[in-house]
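## retry 2 of 3
previous attempt timed out at serialization; input unchanged, resubmitting
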Amino acid sequence: MALDDKISPYRIDIPQGALDDLQDRLGRTRWPDELPGVGWDLGVPLDYLKGLAEYWATAYDWRGQEAALNEFAQFTTVIDDQNIHFLHVRSPEPAALPLLITHGWPGSIAEFLDIIGPLVDPAAHGGDPADAFHVIAPSIPGFGFSGPTHETGWNTVRVARAWAELMRRLGYERYGAQGGDTGALVSPELGHIDPEHLVGIHVNNLLTFPSGQLDNLSDADQGRLKLMQRWQNEMAGYASVQSTRPQTLAYALTDSPVGQLAWIVEKFKEWTDPAAELPEDAVDRDRLLTDVSIYWLTATAGSSARLYYEGAKSWGQAHEPSAVPTGVAVFPMDITIRSIAESQHNIVHWTEFDRGGHFAAMEAPDLLVADVREFFRPLR
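## retry succeeded, writing output
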């Protein structure tokens, strides 16, 4: 291995001083006022956030969550002058297929804790050993333990190029890619960048951008189109800020843990299963706070937002589909229109679910794992 290809073991070990500082800041929060009776209409309600912040400060156990993350082998390497952190969990099955999994925003590697075991060792989780994967789960440049970035230009294409290089360094000649949110943009890019090694692409929360007249939509797609219009009208403020003024936002989120908490927990309210009344009804509360804590403790609110700034330059542009077989899992709150998806991807597998949501690996890990296994079964 060349010196520049060096891969180093990594273990998460947040200094106690950083945890003490977080607790101190949470205890000194300067809270805003709130209008009566508005619920979630204007954003995260005051009483709800006070309760969640109190739990974060007094009951949440970062060290326990850190230990759970450290149960999985982790590494760092430098690619394109950028530090890349990744989980690399090898299966006990010798014929396992390497699977590269990419998170999104406001996600992190913490999303994947419930799916790694069943993917890597299906026999230990009631599955078929023939469905085993070696799992590689990087932190996107600018996010968490891969952050921050140090120069402009880190868009999803550049991330995909880094992922292709990572798989080369790991010695994998054939592999699959999976991802949701930003991962559903990065993974298909690999179909253009590394098609000779990529056997298949599986995505959830695949973004589709309507243009022109859409005819003959199914009832489900008409519902997703309405949700997309609602998203544009009511729910896209975060994206407008992150794609235009990420540096200004960074000052608030890097200085205030409650600000960082509110910025992320709002998305867990709006994007999780609509049957869930509160975010912690859809995902485990400690796991949600682990995700928020990763952003806070690595001070990557600003550098993760810069991915939106870079991506906005090409949002909505049509792409020629790659020839790589693609599978799509559609969960509630996804805004994936099938006819658009099929015009932009070589879709050979399509599944729609009636439970779960945007954070599928956290909300419905059983459904996501089963669909990933089914999609890749004929491609091994």
